[in-house]
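Researcher: Please translate sequence to structure tokens.
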Amino acid sequence: MDRAFSTLEIKELDDDSGTITGIASTPTPDRMDDVVLPLGAKFQLPIPLLWQHNHGDPIGHVTEATVTAKGIEVVAKVALGVTDEIDRYWRLMKAGLVRGLSIGFRGLKVAQIEGTWGVEFQEWEWLELSAVTIPAQAEASIATIKEFAAKPEQAAALVQPAPPPAASGKKAVVVKLNDPARVRAKPFVINKIHTG
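Model: Translation complete:
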């Protein structure tokens, strides 16, 4: 399954009901130059609400989602009182220590963004929403996690030497995946190769 994450912002927490409201900061490019088009979202409510994209750590559900060209307005309900961990997570969100929401999705129709490593997700299946900590967009004060997964049979790599990173003094190798995975995934850098 392919996954990628885009940033959403927590706008309000309702302590009595365990409700979170927020809005997507997309379709602005993130630090990796990717763009998720809100109008391309395919989903069915309720959507699982997870803690830090951990599929084994559900904390509630997205109960409402309004899609516009500017973003996705969401209402999510945290399952307060179910476990001590969920209550602890709620306190972390209330204290502002975890201030972001991040969507996990699978790209259905994607296009490379000309002149960048970025990918435009034109159509995508929304799989989950997570409360997260680490920002990915420079102008956002909230979190994003981005991950791409390719099937092993798609990962036949073409290894091409790349110029060494400027001030690091290290050599690097850029690995590009063959299509169709290459359309969805960015090259990654191998800093050290061990031989025999």
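Researcher: Any highlights?
Model: Confidence is low (pLDDT under 50) at residues 137-165, 171-182.
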